[in-house]
């Protein structure tokens, strides 16, 4: 099976407020196979979001190699990066970032409409994703009439709508109460397994992290097996 994501010896520093710079990633190695579910665990401030953004081609890094879907990040220009994001990469953030003037269905369909798909096709696909996430009866609700867990499920439906090869999720249950978090965890993992998408998620919750096919710990700027 092919790797959908590969990081080799990735380094990243940020300017330190006190002057100088602070190294956050100190030689990260990671390989994720097609359809694999990988969790990255680590305490707050350990660099999990930084790592995920770099892996998803959303942020620059200082040195090392990043290869996503067979394309080397250093060779991918802006247009191709946008195209990859539009067609093959799903991203779920800690807060759902839904468009407040649009319904759950419209939010989930948005990436397809942006791709230029016609409305009937986009809405059909979005509805089946919402249904998979248990939200068929919430399709006409706007974000302000959805619970936190429901909003995250719409965000997952939106990420899945384009049938991505890889989904990245940054603490997708981090802002939810325990009961909603459990539901969102189940649905995210099931959805990835059902669609065959690889899933890389980061969390500071060990119980959630151990539900992946493989769990890694980010500590002192490096990844290790748990
Ligand atoms: N744009 C930035 N400029 C300066 N420091 C940053 C920036 N982004 C993140 N950091 C620092 O890098 C460290 C890791 O951040 P982050 O990746 O958000 O950690 P995590 O997601 O594990 O909580 C933190 O100390 C944070 O303050
Ligand atoms: Mg973070």
What does this structure look like?
It is a single chain. The chain is of the alpha/beta class and 226 residues long. It has two domains: 1-88 and 165-172 and 198-226, Rossmann fold (3-Layer(aba) Sandwich); 92-163, no CATH class. The protein has seven helices and ten strands. The protein has helices at residues 48-55, 78-87, 104-115, 119-132, 148-160, 178-195, 206-209; strands at 3-15, 21-33, 37-41, 63-68, 71-72, 89-92, 166-170, 198-203, 214-219, 222-225. Strands 6-7-8-3-9-10 form a six-stranded mixed beta sheet, sandwiched between helices. The protein has a four-stranded antiparallel beta sheet with strand order 2-1-4-5, covered by helices on one side. A hairpin with a 5-residue loop joins strand 1 and strand 2 (21-33). Helix 3 packs across helix 4 (119-132) and helix 4 crosses helix 5. It is globular and about 50 Å long. 42% of the residues are buried. The model has no long low-confidence stretch (mean pLDDT 95). Bound molecules: adenosine-5'-diphosphate (ADP) and magnesium ion. The site of adenosine-5'-diphosphate (ADP) has 10 residues, from helix 1.
């Amino acid at each position: 099976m092919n790797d959908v994501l590969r990081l080799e010896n990735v380094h990243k520093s940020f300017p330190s407020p006190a002057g100088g710079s602070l190294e956050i990633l100190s030689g990260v190695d990671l390989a994720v196979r097609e359809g694999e579910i990988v969790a990255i665990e680590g305490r707050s401030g350990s660099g999990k979001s930084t790592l995920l953004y770099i892996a998803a081609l959303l942020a620059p890094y200082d040195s090392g190699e990043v290869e996503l879907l067979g394309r080397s990040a250093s060779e991918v220009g802006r247009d191709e990066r946008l195209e990859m994001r539009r067609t093959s990469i799903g991203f779920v953030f800690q807060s759902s970032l839904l468009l407040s003037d649009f319904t759950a269905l419209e939010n989930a369909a948005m990436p397809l409409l942006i791709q230029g798909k016609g409305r009937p096709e986009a809405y059909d696909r979005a509805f089946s994703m919402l249904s998979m996430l248990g939200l068929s009866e919430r399709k006409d609700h706007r974000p302000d009439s959805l619970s936190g867990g429901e909003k995250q499920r719409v965000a997952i439906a939106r990420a899945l709508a384009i049938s991505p090869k890889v989904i990245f999720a940054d603490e997708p249950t981090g802002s939810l109460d325990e009961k909603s978090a459990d539901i969102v965890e189940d649905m995210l993992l099931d959805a990835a397994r059902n669609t065959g998408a690889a899933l890389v998620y980061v969390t500071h919750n060990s119980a959630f992290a151990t539900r992946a096919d493989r769990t890694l710990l980010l500590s002192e700027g490096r990844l290790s097996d748990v």
